[in-house]
Amino acid sequence: MLRRYPEVGEPLACEPVTKGLLNHGYRVSTTRGSYFLKHHLDKRHLGDTSGERATIVRQHRATQRLQSLGVPVVPPLTDREGGTLTVIGDRSYALHPWIDGLHRIGAQLTCVQSRRLGTLLGAVHTGLEQVMSPRGGGGGEQHGATAQPPSRPGYGSPDAADTFALIDELLAVARGERPRDTPRDAFDELAVHRLVERRTLLEQHAHRRPPTPAGPATGWVHGDFHPLNLLYRGGDPVAIVDWDRLGVQPRAEEAVRAAAIFFVQPAGELDLAKVRAYARAYRRAAGVGAAELAAAVHRVWWERLNDLWILHWRYRLHDRRADPQFPAVSALAVWWTREYAAVCAAFTE
User: Fold this and answer.
1) Is the pTM for the entire model greater than 0.70?
2) CB contact at 8 A, 337 and 203
3) pLDDT of 43 above 60
4) Are strands 86-88 and 91-97 parallel, antiparallel or unpaired?
5) DSSP readout, 48-59?
6) What is the dihedral of CA 265, 261, 275, 112, to 10 degrees?
7) Which of 5, 45, 297, 339 lies 20 to 30 angstroms, CA to CA, from 197?
């Protein structure tokens, strides 16, 4: 791999980076510094991967152009042939500069830094609007990548009937008989409590399901903007990483989802003072009106009320990596429902 990059030096060490679910990453040390080697896992597992590789190249082109606009991103290095994606066998790799930095959650941010975070996400959205347009050339044409994919059609909100069925299934597992070596634990007790509670809330609020938007979603978004994909050095963000979910979605919904991750507290409440600072800055930077953000708050609230992904991972996929997030995430849906007006005001006033 490194032989394709004559300027990076000779390899000295290669250590796995432990964080990250969708791809494998390694810190590579060489005689000339450190680099991040990203192994893009094939998520389709079947058939031709050329389309997926074209998508990765499009992501690379987008970050290159965002960097030229001053957005703190880390585009991959270019090899001796001018490419950014290396295919070895059936595996795809990209080599990035190594960026030293720390992840910071909302509790570690001041209100001033929360404003900077909102301004940063606004810059991402307006920057993507420029670089992903046909004239901006963010998609490029290499490997068959198109300059701009079609806008995403309007899409419906989760159906409470489907959620009721999932709740019944998860309750049966959480309450069920277990092998002797896997007794029912405190997590299972909390899961049962939250599932019963969630069913009651959905019964009470089923009439508030958001309608399907009349028009298509046309905004380009990062797609996964949260603390583990943002590196800080001191009080300043220095790198937005992991652009695997770059795509067309309602931009204001990404702003609300990000706030619900950054600013959730252990008890499941949002720090509304920081949300307000963040949202005001985002609205100014992105040119988003209060009505657009209010609609996004409603859709993301309903999405959270129907979202049981952590329990799906635990009880259906037998994957417990997300278990530590469950207490705050499950409490947030309850608190948000109770404090809906205050949350909406924090995003829109």
Assistant:
1) yes
2) no
3) no
4) antiparallel
5) --HHHHHHHHHH
6) 90
7) 297
Report how far residue 349's alpha carbon sits from residue 344's, in angstroms, rounded to the nearest whole number: 8
Eight-class DSSP state of 73:
B
Distances in whole angstroms, Cα of residue 224 to Cα of each of 25, 123, 240: 17, 15, 10
Radius of gyration of the chain (CA): 22
Long-range contacts of 201-210 (CB under 8 A, 24+ apart): 201/305, 201/333, 201/334, 201/337, 202/160, 202/163, 202/164, 202/305, 202/306, 205/305, 205/337, 206/160, 208/298, 208/302, 209/157, 209/158, 209/159, 209/160, 209/302, 210/157, 210/295, 210/298, 210/299, 210/302
Strands 220-221 and 24-30: unpaired
The token pair that represents 93 in the structure block = 């790799």
More confident residue, 138 or 31: 31
Q: How long is the chain?
A: 349
Query: What letter would DSSP give residue 316?
Result: I
Locate 320 and state its tokens.
């417990």
Task: Name the residue type at position 25.
Answer: G
Give the whole-angstrom CA distance, residue 297 versus residue 308.
Answer: 18
What mean pLDDT value characterizes the chain? Answer: 89
- Backbone dihedral angles phi then psi of residue 19, each to the nearest 5 degrees: -85, 150
Helix (H, G, I), strand (E, B) or coil at 166: helix
Given a contact cutoff of 8 angstroms between Cβ atoms, the answer to whether 148 and 132 are in contact is: yes
3-class SS string, 199-223: HHHHHHHHHHCCCCCCCCECCEECC
Residue 343's pLDDT is what?
Answer: 98
What are the C-alpha distances in Å from 219 to residues 27, 53, 74, 82, 215? 33, 22, 22, 29, 12
pLDDT band at 112 (very low <50, low <70, confident <90, very high): very high
